[in-house]
Amino acid sequence: MDTTLLVIQALNGVQLGLLLFLVASGLTLVFGILDFVNLAHGSLYMLGAFICATLTFALGNFLWAVLVALPITAGLGFLVERFIARPLYTRDHLDHVLGTFGLILVLDTAAHLIWGPEGIAVPLPEWLDGQTNLTAEIVVPTYRLLIIGAGLAAAGGLFWLVNHTRLGMLIRAGASNRTMVSALGINIELLFGLVFALGAALAGLAGMLIAPITEANIGMGNNIIITAFVVIIVGGIGSIKGAFIAALLIGLIDTMGRAFLDDIFKIFMSNEAAETSAPAISAMLIYIIMATVLAVKPQGLFPPKVR
User: Fold this and answer.
1) Is pLDDT at 160 greater than 60 in this prediction?
2) Does the residue 252 lie in any domain?
3) Which CATH number goes with the domain that contains 121?
4) What is the pLDDT of residue 216?
5) What is the extent of the structural domain holding 64?
6) Model pTM?
7) Can you tell me the distance from the alpha carbon of 281 to that of 70, in angstroms, rounded to the nearest whole number?
8) Angle at 234 between CA 231 and CA 238, to 5 degrees
9) Is residue 212 assigned to a domain?
10) Is 116 left (phi over 0), alpha (psi -120 to 50) or beta?
11) DSSP calls for 126-175
12) Cβ(28)–Cβ(229) under 8 Å?
């Protein structure tokens, strides 16, 4: 096995894992604290990408566009919570699914009307649109290193917010016993809105970071939301630590499986059989892992503490 290719694919897996974490962390907060199934979380990922793309052309700078787009995406999340999610809190999960699925259709149509059917390619600054030599043989795109750095910084900031601030204390308390939090005089509706806005900002950031690679396009959030649900199920619903570890695990397994599974199969299969079966099995790997975790530990690998 080529060591250089292994390192490059490992970095790609870490990048994918951190992007999944940004989406899954907000999803697990909303699901774990609000007990709300939000299928439209991926649409906020899409809107973050489109808003950032528009601002990049308006401001002439991708990084400034990200900074301006983040509070806008958070505000959209707050509005979604206030007018869509809040009326559904007392309903069952089926109503959550139906309501947010309808919201996906509305937001996809709105994006089509505003930005058109074609995707928007997001230009990078010249200093990011190049290659970086990690060693004499390992060369990776500079922007992918920025994604890894930004993902780690966002993860560190989220851990600090949840574990070392008053808002984080309320979030953890709401995840454990929201009835008690409300009884203690905390404005639970405002807390829910802030949690939703935080989740939207994180999902939007993931969309902004991936847009220069895949471009902003309609429906881009519908694919990642499925994988994000796999992440929170494997890590434990409501657990930030679980989402982080599971996202990295899923990202590495998915990337490595697609890159090397056929080579492994060729050890004990014919080349034709390996090349035929490897893509199908690599596509199923993350779901096999999810099924295994559900069978062995239904609450996930790192479920939150509930009192």
Assistant:
1) yes
2) yes
3) 1.10.3470
4) 94
5) 3-296
6) 0.93
7) 37
8) 75
9) yes
10) left
11) TTTSSEEESSSS-EEEHHHHHHHHHHHHHHHHHHHHHHHSHHHHHHHHHH
12) no
